[in-house]
Write a structure and sequence with these properties.
With 512 residues, the protein is of the alpha+beta class. The protein has a domain at 61-371: Orthogonal Bundle (Transferase(Phosphotransferase), domain 1), CATH 1.10.510. Helix content is 49%, strand content 9%. It has a 5-stranded antiparallel sheet with strand order 1-2-3-5-4, sandwiched between helices. The protein has a two-stranded antiparallel sheet with strand order 6-7. Strand 1 (79-85) and strand 2 (94-101) form a beta hairpin. The longest helix has 42 residues, at 386-427. The protein is globular.
Length: 512
């Protein structure tokens, strides 16, 4: 009640208060969004993307996935959907379903459906053949694929369901069926793996990467959630991602560094993230890493330094063979005796090679754009800083002073040049200015010709002979004298030829 009785502020003041309030709220919202987008998992969340770009993420991908799966099951009646596994992965356009075979109800499988991505460069025919070929791949460190099929817009893959979950579930002590954000975004306990687990799992992952690189099969999707645990063995997941053209989980990291421009280099960089997470129980805060916390072994730190430090990112990634020779992995004994088998036809190998080159080319172009944007942003922030503004003001003042001094010097130079020209002009006359009669400076005609200017009567005691001698001397002057220059003056009219000297008596006239 007391507040209602208070007088309202003026309308202008209310408008200013609203603008200040809105500006303050905008700053707070921007700071909030900066924190969210800096978090790697939150920045890939569907809710965040819908908030920032609602038009591009307005489609319900779960319904689209169910439509594609139901159309597939019309021709394959032996499969049955048990339940959808909501948000167990980080991709927006990839959905998971718990499956079973009708005549084997106790066996559980996982179906993953994914739309095609921007790096899909295989033809539809090559893509369908390559996806079907994945089920024939046999390797001790690759997770078995039960069934795989692709069409012109999407693909689905069926694998056995593992109750133990992935390597990321082991690190974060999470349940496999829980949503991705709940499992990994805010872990209750952060603890790395034991040294022997780090060595064994790391060696197994490097072995399968080496195998894929030798086969010419592009991967580029290594992270801890794509490594399935089967007892004490790590097995790689999602080989189909590179065929479908899906973006990598760590693309926002390696796209900033132009030396990571091949899929082999991408796999090594992603392995560095995975090794850091196995060692410390969490991903690195920033890339590059300036300093590493205490690790179970100095050999772990040496491997991490060769991948995640600023120097390593500038010089380029080490090869998988080089990592296998490092002390951390060189003494690990692999007990699995299963022989790897993955036969790829020659024509498909050539198509995979072209697709790999196209993926690397797009990565290089993206890195170039990011580099140009960074340079522009640094230049704008540099020129917009207070220190730089002060420097520009000081330079502007110095420039204005310099221009003023130059204009003054130019004016003085012109003045001195005019004086010099006058001096040169007077220097052409061979007589002394002191012999010119004073009366000539008071007449309009400086020198009168002898024919038109009668001589004034003499008023001195000088003899006529003396006057005649003076006249003869005047007649014998050299060319260029004042008497001869008079003939070059323009002709005057009758009024100008009249003598305008003041009249005076003959007694007042005296020779100089």
């Amino acid at each position: 009640i007391s507040t209602l009785s208070l007088p309202l502020p003026p309308k202008k003041l209310i408008g200013n208060m609203e603008r200040e309030f809105i500006a303050e709220r905008q700053k707070g919202l921007q700071a909030y969004l900066d924190v969210i987008t800096a978090h790697h998992i939150l920045s890939n969340c569907e809710l965040v993307k819908k908030f920032l770009d609602p038009n591009s993420y307005s489609v319900n991908y779960t319904e689209i996935a169910l439509q594609h799966v139901s159309m597939f099951f019309r021709s394959e009646p032996k499969w049955e959907v048990v339940e959808p596994l909501k948000d167990i992965g980080w991709r927006i356009r990839k959905k998971y379903f718990l499956m079973k075979i009708k005549n084997q109800p106790k066996e559980r499988l996982v179906l993953s459906w994914a739309d095609l991505g921007p790096d899909k460069y295989l033809s539809d025919r090559d893509l369908q053949y390559a996806v079907k070929l994945l089920s024939s791949c046999s390797h001790p460190y690759i997770y078995k694929i039960t069934f795989a099929i692709a069409n012109e817009s999407s693909a689905l893959v069926i694998r056995p369901f593992s109750e133990k979950g992935t390597l990321k579930d082991l690190i974060y002590k999470a349940k496999p069926k829980d949503p991705f954000l709940k499992k990994y975004c805010n872990p209750k306990k952060i603890q790395g793996l034991e040294l022997q687990q780090i060595k064994t799992y790391g060696r197994q992952i490097l072995e399968v990467l080496k195998f894929l690189h030798e086969k010419g099969f592009p991967y580029g999707h290594l992270h801890s959630a794509n490594v399935m645990l089967d007892g004490d063995t790590c097995k790689l997941l999602d080989l189909e991602n590179s065929l479908l053209g899906l973006p990598s989980f760590y693309r926002s990291y390696f796209s900033q560094f132009r030396k990571i421009n091949t899929l082999e280099g991408v796999d090594v960089h992603c392995f560095g993230h995975l090794l850091y997470e196995m060692t410390y129980g969490r991903p690195p805060d920033t890339i590059p890493v300036e300093s590493f916390p205490p690790a179970p072994s100095v050999f772990v730190v040496s491997v991490l330094e060769s991948i995640l430090t600023c120097e390593a990112l500038k010089n380029g990634m080490p090869t998988v063979s080089r990592l296998l020779q490092m002390p951390l992995f060189s003494d690990v004994l692999l007990t699995n005796s299963e022989k790897p088998q993955f036969k790829i036809p020659t024509k498909l190998k050539e198509a995979l090679k072209i697709s790999k080159e196209c993926i690397e080319k797009r990565l290089t172009e993206e890195q170039k754009l990011i580099h140009q944007h960074r340079r522009l942003t640094r230049a704008q922030s540099h020129h917009g800083s207070e220190e730089e503004k002060k420097k520009r003001k000081i330079l502007a003042r110095k420039k204005s002073k310099r221009s003023a001094n130059e204009s003054g010097e130019e004016h003085s130079a012109k003045y001195s040049n005019s004086n010099n020209s006058v001096k040169r002009l007077w220097g052409e006359f061979p007589f002394n200015i002191s012999i010119i009669p004073h009366s000539t400076f008071h007449s309009r005609s400086i020198v009168r010709p002898p024919s038109t200017a009668p001589a004034a009567p003499a008023a001195s005691s000088s003899s006529p002979e003396h006057r005649g001698a003076r006249g003869a001397a005047r007649g014998q002057r050299k060319p260029g004298s004042l008497a001869q220059l008079h003939s070059k003056l323009p002709e005057r009219n009758s009024e100008e030829d009249t003598d305008v000297r003041p009249q005076c008596s003959q007694d007042q006239l005296r020779p100089l």
